[in-house]
Design goal:
Length: about 775
Amino acid sequence: MKLRLLLVIFFFSFVNLEIARFDNYRVYSIEIENEIQSQVLQELEATSDSYLFWDSTQKIHQKVDVVVPPHKFADFHEIIKKFSFKLELKIDNLQRFIDDQQPKRQRKEEGDMNWDDYQSLETIYEWIGFLQRDFPEFITVEDIGLSYEGRTIKVVKLSKKQNNRAIFIEAQIHAREWIAGATATYVLNEFLYSNDPEVQDIALNVDWYIIPIMNPDGYEYTRTSNRNWRKTRSPVSLTCDGVDGNRNFAFNFLTADETGNLGASKIPCSDTYAGPSAFSEPETLALETYIASIREKFDVYLSFHSYGHLILYPFGHTIYNITDYEMLQDIGDAMAAKTYLIDEIQYTVGNWNKVLYPSSGPSIDHMYGQHNIPIAYTIEMRGNGPYGNYGFFLPSNFISVNAMEVLNGLIGLVSKAQIILLIFSFTIGSCEKARFDNYRVYSINIDNNVQLSVLKEIEQTSDSYSFWDSPTHVGENVEIVVPPHQFAHYDEIINKFTFRTILIHENLQEVMDKTQPKRQRKEEGDMNWDDYQSLETIYEWIGFLQRDFPEFITVEDIGLSYEGRTIKVVKLSKKQNNRAIFIEAQIHAREWIAGATATYILNEFLYSNDPEIQDIALNVDWYIIPIMNPDGYEYTRTSNRNWRKTRSPVSLTCDGVDGNRNFAFNFLTADETGDLGASKIPCSDTYAGPSAFSEPETTAVENYFSQVHDQFDIYLAFHSYAHVLLYPFGNTLEPVPNVEMIQDIGDAAAARLYSVHSTIYDVGNSKRIL
Ligand SMILES: [Zn+2]
């Protein structure tokens, strides 16, 4: 009995889900070629609750998308024939189309937020809460009011420094335009995590106010009940709900344009119903109240919508241009130019009334007309294009490309606006970063002692030349970076001392740009080896490893860098009583391949199917420091790609010690020929430091290693570049006691290295080879 009751209850709730469905509903694109056709469609729009128009029907010479339900197929065919409409079937079964795009089931956990899917209001708000917790110094969240059904409307404010001017983004006032809200959150996420200097610039120098979901009731309704819903959810007649929030603002509320077009509807059941009065909706009223309180902070107001690839400026209710339309056209064109660069999608820029259709009471008209915010755009994003015809139902795999287009557009907007209006007092791209445009890199042969002395003198006295290898002995090649102002000087020196030299790179900046990380999203699974990753991403990944493999991954923080970054050791131990190998990577900041190789190897140890790799992962314990010099590494990513040293101050004008010259054993000890193999000059790239272990980084490793050293037989330091396996010592040619063994093992390693891509590694004593 009880069981039956349970089953009955289950059965009941199962069939009672009231969801609008669109099985076999068709979507047509219809061309409006004349006044009569326009009137026909307007009549249909005004009188029918069967046909669902996705565009306004008021304008001649445009196409509108309309949803036709099965019971109207015959009527529709009659109308099409009678008035000779041209049309195209875009979707033949709307429900199938909606089903394909339903969010996938997902786990509920921290870090739930992602952009592979459209997210629920709950997930978005939870994510906003995490941002507030993680970035308390520059993220503020304000609840600006409640929706009709009592949901909170949130503004996220990003302010990274004082006295910035601000840009306001309002997204998804139209419930079904899911891409609008997803783009708003994506952009916010990029502001926090992007490595792109232009994105960092606009995140730093502009304050951003973002309402990701302006119409939370409507949005939830599209997720639970009717994917095609546009309006708010307040009751407006006996049988209809909802007001078009973007027709509900006060400025020129329900005002017809010069051709008599209202640009909104007075009929409650219509999708563009303007509401009983301006700001009748709690959502629009909350926004208006909030904007009025902080109006003076803004120069730019943006409203995110879909679809149409449009950048629209005021007004919607008049066919005449606003007085400063040229400025808005210029800035819009700059946005469109940047947007186009991502995926060659061409956005059209123009006056709302002309480019789209007449509309009265939209938010941007109110912000521009009532609050005098000088730059106001509605952005209509992707929907139908060369990538497919999806209308409001853009699949979630387009979120990221769409958002990157908009983000790039924002960069265009800010850079153009600052030129025209002088409102943003910074220049994009000028964040102080070392550049090497037209810097040349030469390889120089050292054929005699005079040449050696010349290069040593340059290395010790010049801060414009930069050596990639220290000149130490006759017979070697060294690589040197020559800045443009030294081209003549370099040429003179080369001729005077008859150096043999080869130009390796004509333009060092170009070479560096190729290795710059691509833009990336911040989410779990962010780690990959298509790019060099930030310290943050690497450490986050290490955290995931620890969580996912608690039985054999241990992570230890062994100390802090000079600037306070953690130095982490990842320990992999799959069984007891293994002997261990230690890998220390990237003590030299610019040698990015070292750290990337260390993490790659660790990843292979965990995931490779190769039995030989599985063997060494199982039977050896591995201790890996992926980034030994985190300050230097971050500095190469943000400021100077060519940086080698740590970041501690060492003289009035110079920073950094060569960590790999800072260990105690034979610290600053000359070899038999008197060569130090390190520098005592603070500004030098091989400066050994004021004393051994002067650097917190090397001290941390030393302290850690002295606790665990009895577990190890092998210590490896990863560097680049030269294809060499070097063993001790660096300061003498005298062979180490176990030279034969260490040479044999090195040869075996070199043989395996060669077997992968035929790269020849040289094995030998450091001093002899380098
Ligand atoms: Zn919209």
